[in-house]
């Protein structure tokens, strides 16, 4: 049987679920949820070291970057300048080249600033980064990102942390048809059925943070999302039946008494 | 008189006073920072971690030391 692998910038992954490491109660809970989710990629943020106490445990003590790929993000950046600075620092920490770019333009809804995002993608790609780009679901902007060398197109399903699910299925379908690099739903997933839907629409992966971290039972939700992504992917690959308004009996009438 | 032997620097937004001829390596050691888990910026320029012992701090230098934390 052929293995169905997710390929991002020449790296291959069995799991199509990418998990964020923010918003957990503590690092133990985060590490356990990630383990249960089966994710092989986790997003991480770049922040100042607490210089008054450097003995405190840090993320790397709980999640081994040799076993799970860290995907540094630019959370909190509102300009291209800040995003570039953050990702150059991230690369310096450990040689990471695959990064998640996210340049926000709207503090209330956390929508991406697509002009700054596009500019940053161009610069980072020239510097040798493999840029996975958080973006809106506008097919024209997504095409421009892809043409600028984006390693993955990551449209939002709904605002970050909203849990509203996929708001514009039509655009995601259009994006699926036009996108040659991995298409990953980033932001807006609330429950397992949203993840199934994303995968059934043909997305290559799903990125989830809040829906797992803030669930009453994050571990059970992590497991639920793991199976949702597998289920949705298999459903997509299996070739669904054509929807039909008329009923079609499952049992033959032959031999009916 | 003692103050003449000291310089003032800003590390991660905090003011620190260190002696003259203090290298970035000295600073990292003083702060007990795990060097392989951080990146260092001196006045907004990323520093090659192999060259820390050769870079001596000057008055008013701004240093940023960053690492990875949880994020989405």
Descriptive report:
The complex is a heterodimer of chains A (257) and B (72). Chain A has helices at 27-37, 59-62, 80-94, 114-126, 139-147, 169-178, 192-200, 210-213, 218-238; strands at residues 6-8, 11-13, 17-20, 41-48, 69-72, 98-101, 130-135, 152-155, 184-186, 205-208. Chain A starts with 5 loop residues before the first strand and ends in a 19-residue tail after the last helix. Chain A contains nine helices and ten strands. Helices cover 37% and strands 17% of the residues of chain A. Chain A has one domain (17-48, 57-237): TIM Barrel. Chain B is mainly beta. Chain B has one domain (2-66): Beta-grasp domain (Ubiquitin-like (UB roll)), CATH 3.10.20. Chain B has a five-stranded mixed beta sheet with strand order 2-1-5-3-4, with no helix packed on it. Chain A binds chain B through residues 20-24, 27, 30, 43-49, 51-52, 54-55, 58-60, 70, 72-73, 75, 85, 88-90, 92-94, 160-161, 207, 209-210, and chain B through 11-14, 31-34, 36-41, 44, 46, 49, 64-72. β4 (41-48) of chain A pairs antiparallel with β5 (62-70) of chain B, so a sheet runs across the interface.
């Amino acid at each position: 049987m052929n293995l169905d692998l997710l390929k991002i910038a020449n790296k291959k992954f069995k799991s199509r679920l990418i998990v964020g490491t923010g918003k957990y109660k503590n690092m133990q809970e985060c590490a356990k949820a990630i383990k249960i989710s089966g994710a092989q990629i986790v997003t991480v943020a770049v922040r100042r070291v607490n210089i008054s106490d450097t003995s405190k445990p840090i993320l790397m003590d709980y999640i081994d970057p040799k076993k799970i790929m860290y995907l540094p993000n630019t959370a909190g950046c509102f300009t291209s300048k800040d995003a570039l600075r953050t990702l150059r620092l991230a690369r310096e920490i450990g040689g990471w080249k695959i990064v998640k770019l996210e340049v926000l333009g709207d503090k209330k809804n956390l929508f991406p600033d697509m002009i700054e995002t596009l500019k940053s993608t161009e610069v980072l790609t020239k510097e040798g980064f493999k840029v996975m780009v958080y973006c809106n679901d506008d097919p024209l902007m997504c095409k421009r990102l892809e043409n600028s060398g984006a390693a993955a197109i990551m449209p939002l399903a709904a605002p970050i942390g909203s849990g509203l699910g996929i708001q514009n299925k039509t655009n995601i379908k259009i994006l699926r048809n036009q996108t040659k690099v991995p298409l990953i739903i980033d932001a807006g997933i609330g429950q397992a059925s949203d993840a199934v839907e994303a995968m059934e629409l043909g997305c290559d992966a799903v990125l989830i943070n809040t829906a797992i971290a803030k669930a009453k039972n994050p571990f059970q939700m992590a497991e639920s999302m793991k199976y949702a992504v597998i289920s949705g992917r298999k459903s997509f690959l299996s070739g669904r039946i054509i929807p039909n308004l008329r009923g079609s009996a499952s049992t033959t009438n032959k031999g009916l008494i | 008189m003692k103050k003449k032997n000291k310089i003032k620097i800003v590390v991660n937004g905090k003011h620190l006073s260190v002696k003259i001829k203090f290298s970035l390596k000295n600073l990292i050691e003083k702060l007990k920072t795990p060097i392989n888990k951080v990146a260092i910026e001196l006045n907004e320029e990323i520093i090659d971690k192999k060259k820390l012992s050769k870079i001596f701090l000057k008055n008013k230098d701004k240093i940023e030391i960053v690492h990875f934390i949880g994020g989405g």
